[in-house]
């Protein structure tokens, strides 16, 4: 999957009434695009970072870092996130280094409409998740 | 050790950055090479398999032909015996013996081909399984690598800009505020619409002389006159 093609196709795309804004991010200026920043209209603070391998498209939204979590609730937060993850449509909760994330994975064969739908859903999921987990934050 | 297990080991060993523990360029190169080697081996094994299968069916056909001929000649022998030609019957029987010797030679050859076919098929299946396994592992490594790269790119390109992501709580509040504003705007315009339709209706009713009609000078004059 070429991220460049995806960027061109997704830019300005309107899905479920939301407009998508795409910003390709280059890796160390060598011309290769390693990640796309996608912002779903109205969710400016929760950008989705899209990257791809031969097999899958991976969409990651950063939720919060470990330092933002009330230390005494960290253990409970982990448990809660494991339990919650199953209930979230199309997205899962995860941890990259010390960054808590919401992510979704799709086959590279996914049609554009479904990719766009997943991105919109992920933005809504991210907001819902943040709201649901707000009490765990400092 | 599977890649996932390596990741867990690294995590339990206190590594916070999983990528570095698992993704070295070497690991990817080795996995890719193994996949390529296995796929070559499969292609070769499939070539041999088709050859052996062709030999197998050729030998099978030969055996069937000989068996047919034996049957045929047994018939001839019986006919010769019925006619009392013992010498001819013996000669035909010798021919049958020749065929049977040939058959005895070919039978083990066929068995050999058959077991080769079974063995090659088993080998191909095994290699295909291991290719699939390596591909899956490669996918784990590549995903880990991609996420790592994406994070580095995002950090380096966004750290200078204003769009640097701030604390989650702020983000949450800002989005909520924006949604609230949007809701308020929609509500306000709905109310405005409703008022407008109210006003329209009033105007129409007035024009038709229904409801609270405006006091007209002529009406007042008429009322005063009537008193």
UniProtKB/TrEMBL annotation, chain A:
<dbReference type="InterPro" id="IPR019231">
    <property type="entry name" value="DUF2170"/>
</dbReference>
<protein>
    <submittedName>
        <fullName>DUF2170 family protein</fullName>
    </submittedName>
</protein>
<dbReference type="Pfam" id="PF09938">
    <property type="entry name" value="DUF2170"/>
</dbReference>
TrEMBL record, chain B:
<keyword id="KW-0175">Coiled coil</keyword>
<feature type="coiled-coil region">
    <location>
        <begin position="28"/>
        <end position="55"/>
    </location>
</feature>
<feature type="compositionally biased region" description="Basic and acidic residues">
    <location>
        <begin position="171"/>
        <end position="190"/>
    </location>
</feature>
<feature type="region of interest" description="Disordered">
    <location>
        <begin position="158"/>
        <end position="191"/>
    </location>
</feature>
<dbReference type="Pfam" id="PF04012">
    <property type="entry name" value="PspA_IM30"/>
</dbReference>
<comment type="similarity">
    <text>Belongs to the PspA/Vipp/IM30 family.</text>
</comment>
<dbReference type="InterPro" id="IPR007157">
    <property type="entry name" value="PspA_VIPP1"/>
</dbReference>
<feature type="coiled-coil region">
    <location>
        <begin position="110"/>
        <end position="137"/>
    </location>
</feature>
<protein>
    <submittedName>
        <fullName>PspA/IM30 family protein</fullName>
    </submittedName>
</protein>
């Amino acid at each position: 999957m070429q991220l460049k093609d995806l960027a061109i196709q997704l830019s300005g795309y309107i899905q479920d009434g939301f407009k998508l804004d795409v910003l390709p991010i280059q890796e160390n200026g060598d011309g290769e695009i390693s990640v796309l920043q996608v912002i779903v209209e109205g969710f400016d603070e929760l950008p989705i970072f899209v990257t791809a391998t031969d097999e899958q498209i991976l969409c990651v939204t950063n939720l919060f870092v470990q330092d933002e979590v009330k230390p005494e609730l960290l253990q409970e937060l982990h448990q809660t996130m494991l339990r919650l993850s199953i209930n979230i449509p199309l997205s899962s909760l995860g941890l990259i280094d010390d960054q808590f994330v919401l992510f979704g994975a799709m086959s590279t064969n996914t049609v554009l409409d479904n990719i766009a739908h997943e991105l919109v859903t992920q933005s809504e999921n991210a907001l819902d998740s943040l709201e649901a987990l707000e009490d765990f934050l400092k | 050790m599977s890649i996932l297990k390596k990741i867990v080991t690294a995590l339990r060993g206190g590594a916070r950055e999983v990528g570095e523990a698992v993704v070295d360029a070497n690991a990817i190169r080795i996995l890719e090479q193994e996949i390529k080697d296995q796929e070559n081996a499969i292609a070769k094994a499939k070539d041999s398999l088709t050859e052996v299968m062709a030999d197998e069916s050729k030998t099978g056909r030969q055996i069937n032909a000989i068996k047919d001929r034996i049957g045929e000649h047994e018939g001839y022998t019986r006919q010769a015996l019925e006619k009392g030609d013992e010498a001819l019957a013996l000669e035909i029987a010798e021919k049958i013996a020749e065929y049977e010797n040939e058959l005895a030679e070919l039978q083990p050859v066929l068995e050999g081909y058959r077991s080769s076919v079974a063995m090659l098929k088993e080998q191909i299946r095994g290699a295909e399984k291991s290719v699939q396994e390596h591909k899956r592992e490669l996918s784990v490594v590549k995903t880990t690598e991609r996420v790592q790269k994406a994070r580095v790119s995002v950090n380096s390109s966004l750290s200078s800009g204003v769009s640097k992501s701030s604390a989650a709580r702020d983000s949450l509040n800002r989005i909520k505020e924006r949604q609230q504003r949007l809701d308020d705007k929609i509500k306000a315009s709905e109310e405005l619409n409703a008022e407008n339709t109210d006003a329209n209706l009033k105007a129409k009713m007035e024009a038709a002389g229904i409801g609270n009609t405006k006091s007209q000078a002529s009406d007042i004059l008429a009322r005063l006159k009537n008193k």
